[in-house]
Each structure stands twice: as structure tokens, then as C-alpha cells.
Design goal:
This protein has about 140 residues and is an all-alpha fold. The protein has one domain. The protein contains 4 helices and no strands. Helix 3 runs antiparallel to helix 4. The protein is rod-shaped.
Length: about 140
């Protein structure tokens, strides 16, 4: 929150400089500086927001890889194959929703962590009720 207050304080100083300077060239310079500073902060805010998406995807992928390795080590290749096929079939990548990848990947992780005997195949439909989003754990 301090960063936001700092942004507005600097912007207010630049606008005040544009309003109260005596020379026209100084007023123009302060006004252009205020505009450029606002554009820069807008871009920075967008970049910071995109970092949160990267964290969600990284976390979901890390958990999916960990569960996949665990399933392979426990000789549950069939279950892993079913979950990966289900993930691929359900993944619809769009700009607006980004394919709901984190949620779908975590659902696959939950399905893969269901204990099964070696060689037993557990599919996504048998894991009803396990689709709660644990992304923010």
C-alpha cells in the first residue's frame, strides 16, 4: 500500500509542478513527466499482476509433476495416463480464462493422490467431490 501512496505523491508533485511553474517550458516538461510517469506505473502494475498468474501456473505444474512422478514410482501408469488424457481433453485454452489450467491440474493431482493398489486404475470419475481448489494452500 505504501507503493501506491508513493506513486500518488510523486504524481501530485509532478502535477503541482505543471500547474504552478512560471515558465511555459517547465510547465510542459512537468506535464509530460506526469503523463510518462502515469504510463510507466500503469505498465508496472500490469506486469506485477501477471506475476501472480505465473505463480499459480508454476505451483499447479509443480504439484502435477510431483504427483505424476509418484504415480510412476508406484507403478500406476494407467491411472497417470487416464488423468493426463482427461486433463488434455478438458483443457480449453482461451485468453479470458487461460484454460482453467491451475484448477484442472490440481484436480488431476488430487485424483492421482488417491491411494490405489499397484496396477489398479482409478479414473477421474471415481474421485467425485475432490475438485475443490487448493491453489492457495
Amino acid at each position: 500500500m505504501i507503493i501506491v501512496y508513493g506513486f500518488f505523491a510523486v504524481l501530485a508533485l509532478l502535477i503541482a509542478g505543471a500547474a504552478f511553474r512560471q515558465k511555459k517550458n517547465e510547465r510542459i516538461a512537468f506535464a509530460v513527466s506526469a503523463f510518462v510517469f502515469s504510463c510507466l506505473m500503469y505498465q508496472l502494475a500490469g506486469f506485477a499482476h501477471s506475476l501472480s498468474y505465473n505463480i499459480w501456473y508454476s505451483s499447479a505444474t509443480d504439484k502435477l509433476l510431483e504427483a505424476s512422478i509418484g504415480a510412476l514410482e508406484e507403478k500406476r501408469e494407467g491411472q497417470l495416463l487416464n488423468e493426463l488424457k482427461s486433463l488434455r481433453e478438458n483443457l480449453v485454452v482461451t485468453y479470458e480464462f487461460k484454460g482453467d489450467y491451475p484448477e484442472q491440474a490440481l484436480e488431476a493431482v488430487e485424483n492421482l493422490t488417491i491411494t490405489a493398489e499397484p496396477g489398479e486404475v482409478v479414473n477421474a470419475s471415481s474421485a467425485a467431490g475432490l475438485s475443490e481448489n487448493h491453489l492457495h494452500d
